[in-house]
């Protein structure tokens, strides 16, 4: 289930972002509580400024936050063919990975985007993150370029719209 992030969700958000397994493919260290708070607020502001952002992903059975999925502008300095489009991202806590929750959440987010703000999307995924690479392919993303970004090999992907139904 996708829900807007609320102040009550922050402790779990910070716990997820503090986990080294969560950030290992993001080219960063686990976030301190203060850094997580800044990220949490940045997401709230993104909804205000751009009309989209990231949702909290909850497991319906127990209403526990297990991750996030959605869209953002990042302005990474990767060129207009990447930076000028909304970027898609998703992540799950380790205990929620490998169960189909990531695809379900990312698909729901993309379905919303396609209805409300149709247009191209991009994604930056660590070249070693095969699970996210596979998920992106299922969502209709195609490889634009392979790059070194902040010391990691990454794939820049683009989706021009929903995948064509077979």
What keywords describe this structure?
166 residues; alpha+beta; 4-stranded antiparallel sheet; 6 helices; 36% helix
Mean pLDDT: 93
Residue fraction in strands: 25-35%
Shape summary: globular
Could you describe the largest sheet, including whether it forms a barrel? Answer: 4 strands, antiparallel
- Backbone structural class: alpha+beta
Oligomer: single chain
- Compute the gyration radius: what is it? 15 Å
From the N-terminal CA to the C-terminal CA, the straight-line distance is: 27 Å
Note the total helix count. Answer: 6
Report on the architecture of this protein:
- It is a single chain.
- The chain is of the alpha+beta class and 166 residues long.
- Helix content is 36%, strand content 27%.
- The protein has 6 helices and 7 strands.
- The strands form 2 sheets. It has a 4-stranded antiparallel beta sheet, with helices on both faces. It has a 3-stranded antiparallel beta sheet with strand order 5-7-6, with helices on one face.
- The longest helix is centred in the first third of the chain and has 18 residues, at 33-50.
- The two termini are 27 Å apart.
- The mean pLDDT is 93.
Explain the layout of strands and helices.
Blueprint: E1 2-3, H1 10-18, H2 20-23, H3 33-50, E2 54-59, E3 64-72, H4 80-83, E4 87-92, H5 101-116, E5 121-126, H6 130-138, E6 142-149, E7 152-159
Antiparallel strand pairs: 1-2, 2-3, 3-4, 5-7, 6-7
Helix pairs in contact: 1-3
